[in-house]
Each structure stands twice: as structure tokens, then as C-alpha cells.
């Protein structure tokens, strides 16, 4: 496979900078008038894939909503990942894994290994045991043409306790995370196959930066343009982020943003036409807000 960053750039160019989350939340299942059980989970998730395959830059199943159904839920997640792969739609598994040593290596094998049914095109990771602890996952992602999105600056009110904290050097934790990602992406891009080098702007090590974090990027003096990787931005649409918020948070890094929207689109199901129309509107609005 070509590197994930390259494939994501191509998908964003074709379909717009929108990622749609697949979040089988009980509230959404109820809105679709289907049961909160394994059959309802499968119907919800696979209907979303059917509606949006080949129409958005990426789909992002939230692993927790599958895990709550045990082994059958994980089997449904495997089906979703396989369905995305079969249709050529990028799949970001939102698992937020993070650990050390052999345990992190096992997570890497599960979500990034070529022989794993849980491996999508990318996975979300938590770096708060130290960015270096993610090395097994980052190395495997790069070896296999996959990507990772590392939590950096999230919009939950508790996030600032860690992400805004400053090290002895004065650098905030979020700044350290973004710096490490930038170094890795610069190294990847400098070694890109010359035949596609001019087409590449994004490396395969992305960050998760909430679209509703307000002026936190400015307050922490983060240079998101230096990351040189995709910026997965939850919070667009139903959670409140519009053009003004995207401008405030991302500034000159807007062209690297992959906006994530879930509820605002998923509520328009279960009809395929409703999901497609909602995704098309959202992609148009996001592209306009990001000056794409």
C-alpha cells in the first residue's frame, strides 16, 4: 500500500475533508427504531457503511460501542472494517489504545498488523504514558502503509489537566506530542518515493485536535502547520464547531484538517438517501469553512 498520509490526501481531494464516525450509541439506535442488541448494532453499522462507502474521505467506527456487546460486537467491528476495505473506503478505528512494551506491541499487531481482522487503515492512540511508548504502533503503521492519530488536544473539560500542563522546559504536553509527530512526518516525507513526492503534503502520523478547544492552540503556542500530518477534528457540526471555530483553532493548518462528524449525520438514518444527503451537506459545509 501507499503510505496512509498519501492515501488520505487523495481521498480528501476526491470526497472532501469529512470523516463520518460510526457510533452505535443507544440514543441513535432508538432514533432508527432498532434494538440495542447485536443485531441492531450490525444493522446500524453496516447500513452506515453501505450509505457512505466511496462518498466520504473516511469512516471511523468507535470501538467502545462494539466492545460493549462482547465477542459478537468485536465480530461486527471486523465486518465493518472488512466492508470498508472491500469498497476502498478508508477506515480509522477509534480505539484510543495506549500502553507500554509488549502490551503496546500487542495492540499494534491487533489494529495495525497485516493479518489482523481488526486492522483498518489507521487507529487512534493515547500518548499519555509517554510518546515513546507508542513506538511499536508507529513502527508497525509505517511498515504496513497504515497511519495513527495521536490524542493531542481534546475538547473534554478534563483534558487540560494533562494536555495543557507544562514540562520543566516550559513546553506544554500537547506541544511535545505535536513536536514528536512533526519530526516523524518530516522524516517520512523526506524519504517519499520521488514519483509521488510532489503530490504529498501529509505524513501518516496524525493528531486528534478537538474543533471546539477555542483559543487553546494560541494560548499554548502550538504550531500545527509544523506537524505535517492530518489533524482529525472531532466536534464539527452537532457538537458546535463551525467556520469561526475552525479558523480560531486551526488557522493556517486548516488544509490538514479532517473534520469528524457523527450524530448530525447518523440521525438522518436509517434511510440510505437521508444519510447520503446529510453527509454531502456536511462535506460541503466543512470544505467551505476550511477554504477548500
How would you describe this structure to a colleague?
It is a single chain. Helix 6 links the parallel strand 3 and strand 4 (122-125). The mean pLDDT is 93. The chain is globular and about 55 Å long. The two termini are 26 Å apart. It has helices at residues 4-15, 26-31, 38-52, 63-67, 70-87, 101-112, 135-143, 160-163, 173-190, 194-197, 216-219, 243-250, 263-266, 272-289, and strands spanning 18-22, 58-61, 90-97, 122-125, 147-153, 205-209, 231-234, 257-261. Helix 6 (101-112) runs parallel beside helix 7. Helix content is 47%, strand content 14%. With 292 residues, it is an alpha/beta fold. It has one domain: TIM Barrel. The chain has an 8-stranded parallel beta barrel, surrounded by 7 helices.
In short:
This protein has 292 residues and is of the alpha/beta class. It is 47% helix and 14% strand.
Please describe the structure with a list of short key phrases separated by commas or semicolons:
single chain; 292 residues; alpha/beta; TIM Barrel; eight-stranded parallel β-barrel
List the helices and strands and how they pair.
Blueprint: H1 4-15, E1 18-22, H2 26-31, H3 38-52, E2 58-61, H4 63-67, H5 70-87, E3 90-97, H6 101-112, E4 122-125, H7 135-143, E5 147-153, H8 160-163, H9 173-190, H10 194-197, E6 205-209, H11 216-219, E7 231-234, H12 243-250, E8 257-261, H13 263-266, H14 272-289
Parallel strand pairs: 1-2, 1-8, 2-3, 3-4, 4-5, 5-6, 6-7, 7-8
Helix pairs in contact: 3-5, 3-14, 6-7
Amino acid at each position: 500500500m501507499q503510505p496512509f498520509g498519501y492515501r488520505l490526501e487523495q481521498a480528501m481531494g476526491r470526497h472532501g475533508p469529512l470523516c463520518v464516525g460510526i457510533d452505535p450509541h443507544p440514543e441513535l439506535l432508538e432514533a432508527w427504531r432498532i434494538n440495542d442488541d447485536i443485531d441492531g448494532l450490525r444493522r446500524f453499522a453496516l447500513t452506515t457503511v453501505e450509505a457512505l462507502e466511496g462518498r466520504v474521505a473516511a469512516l471511523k467506527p468507535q470501538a467502545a460501542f462494539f466492545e460493549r456487546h462482547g465477542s459478537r460486537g468485536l465480530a461486527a467491528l471486523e465486518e465493518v472494517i472488512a466492508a470498508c476495505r472491500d469498497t476502498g473506503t478508508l477506515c480509522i478505528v477509534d480505539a484510543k489504545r495506549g500502553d507500554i512494551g509488549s502490551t503496546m506491541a500487542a495492540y499494534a499487531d491487533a489494529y495495525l498488523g497485516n493479518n489482523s481482522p481488526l486492522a483498518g487503515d489507521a487507529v487512534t492512540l493515547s500518548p499519555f504514558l509517554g510518546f515513546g511508548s507508542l513506538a511499536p504502533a508507529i513502527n508497525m503503521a509505517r511498515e504496513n502503509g497504515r497511519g495513527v492519530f495521536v490524542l493531542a488536544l481534546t475538547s473534554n473539560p478534563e483534558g487540560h489537566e494533562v494536555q495543557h500542563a507544562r514540562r520543566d522546559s516550559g513546553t506544554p504536553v500537547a506541544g511535545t506530542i505535536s513536536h514528536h509527530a512533526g519530526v516523524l512526518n518530516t522524516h517520512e516525507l523526506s524519504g517519499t518515493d520521488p514519483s509521488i513526492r510532489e503530490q504529498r503534503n501529509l505524513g501518516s502520523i496524525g493528531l486528534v485536535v478537538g474543533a471546539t478547544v477555542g483559543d487553546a492552540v494560541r494560548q499554548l503556542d502550538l504550531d500545527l502547520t509544523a506537524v505535517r500530518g492530518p489533524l482529525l477534528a472531532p466536534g464539527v457540526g452537532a457538537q458546535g464547531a463551525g467556520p469561526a471555530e475552525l479558523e480560531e483553532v486551526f488557522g493556517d493548518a486548516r488544509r490538514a484538517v479532517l473534520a469528524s462528524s457523527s450524530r448530525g449525520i447518523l440521525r438522518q438514518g436509517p434511510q440510505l438517501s437521508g444519510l447520503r444527503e446529510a453527509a454531502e451537506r456536511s462535506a460541503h459545509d466543512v470544505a467551505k469553512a476550511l477554504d477548500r
